[in-house]
């Protein structure tokens, strides 16, 4: 029990940990609004207030986070030229998303003219979509390379059995983490598309709610202390 509490404290001490928790509140509230709007308008209104407040607080908490893209490229640009190009596009898209998200937040809280909100939302979501597509490609390449490495280790007669087991376990853990990242990116891509090109599927409350929760919980899993 104490170990779980310690892990929760560590998780919530992280910026991403808080973000995933508040994101859960945001999209659970969205689903509650859809469920209650006809049966209990008063409760639906309160849930809507929680959704809006959660969304705005997440935007405020992400202030300055666009700089992490520069840091990611500086620390680990990639092992090959092709991988570096993919990383540049992925991180550039994320930086555009997070940078213009500042202006969207300022428009939503009334500091900037509200007429800028739609334009900032489009630019932010477009950058976000580009970033997610390239991040998914990167994760696919890394998962594929991991599978090939796992096959090579299994066929190898040079390693001891325990060493093989440890290496294979490490590859499988990495694969699960990357699959979680793909799930989160695809879920967030649906949310971004809802902003770029509104449509009945992506903009439906259930699609947005489930996508938001998949993204939040996949991020929760990836950031939970091991």
UniProtKB/TrEMBL annotation:
One of its GO terms (cellular component) is peroxisomal membrane. Homooligomer. Interacts with ARC5 and FIS1B on peroxisomes. One of its GO terms (biological process) is regulation of peroxisome size. GO terms for molecular function: identical protein binding. Belongs to the peroxin-11 family. It is found in: Peroxisome membrane. Keywords: Membrane, Peroxisome, Peroxisome biogenesis, Transmembrane, Transmembrane helix. InterPro entries: PEX11. Pfam families: PEX11 (PF05648). Its main location: membrane. It comes from Tagetes erecta. This is Peroxisomal membrane protein 11B. It comes from the Eukaryota. Involved in peroxisomal proliferation. Promotes peroxisomal duplication, aggregation or elongation without fission. The chain crosses the membrane at residues 82-100, 120-143. It is a multi-pass membrane protein.
């Amino acid at each position: 029990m104490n170990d779980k509490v310690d892990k929760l404290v560590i998780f919530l001490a992280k910026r991403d940990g808080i973000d995933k928790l508040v994101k859960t509140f945001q999209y659970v509230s969205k689903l509650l609004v859809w469920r209650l709007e006809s049966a209990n308008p008063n409760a639906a209104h309160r849930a809507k207030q929680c959704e809006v407040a959660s969304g705005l607080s997440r935007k405020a908490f992400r202030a300055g986070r666009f700089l992490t893209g520069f840091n990611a490229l500086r620390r680990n640009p990639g092992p090959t030229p092709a991988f570096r190009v993919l990383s540049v596009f992925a991180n550039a898209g994320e930086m555009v998303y997070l940078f213009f998200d500042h202006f969207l937040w300022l428009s939503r809280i009334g500091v900037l003219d509200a007429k800028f909100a739609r334009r900032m939302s489009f630019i932010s979501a477009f950058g976000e979509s580009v970033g997610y597509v390239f991040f998914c490609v990167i994760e696919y390449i890394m998962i594929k390379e991991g599978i090939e490495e796992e096959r090579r280790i299994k066929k190898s007669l040079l390693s001891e059995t325990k060493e093989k087991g440890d290496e294979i376990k490490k590859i499988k853990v990495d694969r699960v983490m990357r699959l979680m990242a793909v799930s989160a990116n695809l879920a967030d891509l649906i949310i971004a598309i809802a902003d770029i090109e509104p449509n009945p599927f992506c903009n439906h409350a259930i699609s947005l709610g489930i996508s938001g929760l998949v993204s939040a919980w996949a991020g929760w899993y990836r950031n939970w202390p091991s």
